[in-house]
Every structure is written in C-alpha cells, then in structure tokens.
Amino acid sequence: MKRGVDLYQLECHLFYLINHHYDRKRWNSFFHFYTHAGGARFTIGVTLCVLLSSLLYAHQLGLQMAAALAASHLPVALMKKCYPRKRPYLVLSETKVSDNPLSDHSFPSGHTTAIFSIVTPVVIQLPLLGALLLPVAFLVGVSRIFLGLHYPSDVLVGVILGTLAGIVSVLLI
C-alpha cells in the first residue's frame, strides 16, 4: 500500500512542477493555445479536411485518422464513467486553474487521446510530417496538466489510448 501512496505523491509533485507556472502570462497564453489542438473542433476539423482531400493517399490517411478518433472516444467515455477521478483542482488545494474549469471526470485525458489518435497515423504514413506534429501532440498533453485539468497519469493513459487507436486504424485500413 505504501508504494501506491509514493506513486501518488510523485504524481502530485510532477503535477505541481508543471502547474505552478500558471501565473506566468506567456506560458498561460502558450498552453491555452495548444490545449485547443486536442479539442473536438480541431481534431474533427483537421480529420475532415484530410478525409475530404482529393488526393487518394490523403483520403486513406483521413479514413485512418477518422477511425482512430472515433475508436478512441469509446474507451475514454467508458473509463471516465468507471473511474470517476476528480480533477486536480478539486482535490489539490494549491492548483492554479482558469475561471471556468471542466467539471466532468479527469481520467483519462480526452484531449490528449484525441490528438494522439489523429497524429499517430500521420507519424506512421508520413514520418517527416509526423515528426513536426508529434511535439504538438505532446504540448497538448502538457497543457492539460499546466492548466490544472489533469494529472500526469491521465495524460499518459491518453497518450497510450490515442496511440493504440492510431496504430490499429493503420493496420486495419
């Protein structure tokens, strides 16, 4: 049991290490910008643009991205219901958070899952472009911690779910 407490303390320490910079205006603007790259409007919009492309290769990539995004949504929704973890700002008193924080459950990070689900097929099919997009995906994950909305493990599981959904979509389509 002590090991679990130690892991939670480590996670809280890592969370605070990232979140305590919230008051710095430049960082705040930077991460508010990047967090939206994992949101529904952005991920669905980018996927539709690629899917509707007239290039056959891009169309297949768009199908892979769409399948991965759709497939990744179900486990996130189920896990949020089965593991109703409160968001860090509701549990950790020194969390810095915006005026209108999210109120649903924290685990796993849906934004992180979504961005990794659409970036992973790009990384596999177009490695040079993927190399440019992968840092953006990681910034989305870090932004979720920075903004006080997720624990590091929420983001890590989002990375894993999104990546797996992306890999499976490439293998099947």
Automatic annotation (TrEMBL):
GO terms for cellular component: plasma membrane. It is a multi-pass membrane protein. The chain crosses the membrane at residues 33-55, 61-79, 126-149, 155-172. Keywords: Cell membrane, Hydrolase, Membrane, Transmembrane, Transmembrane helix. Residues 60-170 form the Phosphatidic acid phosphatase type 2/haloperoxidase domain. Pfam families: PAP2. SMART domains: acidPPc. PANTHER family: DECAPRENYLPHOSPHORYL-5-PHOSPHORIBOSE PHOSPHATASE RV3807C-RELATED (PTHR14969:SF62), SPHINGOSINE-1-PHOSPHATE PHOSPHOHYDROLASE (PTHR14969). This is Phosphoesterase. It comes from Mesobacillus campisalis.
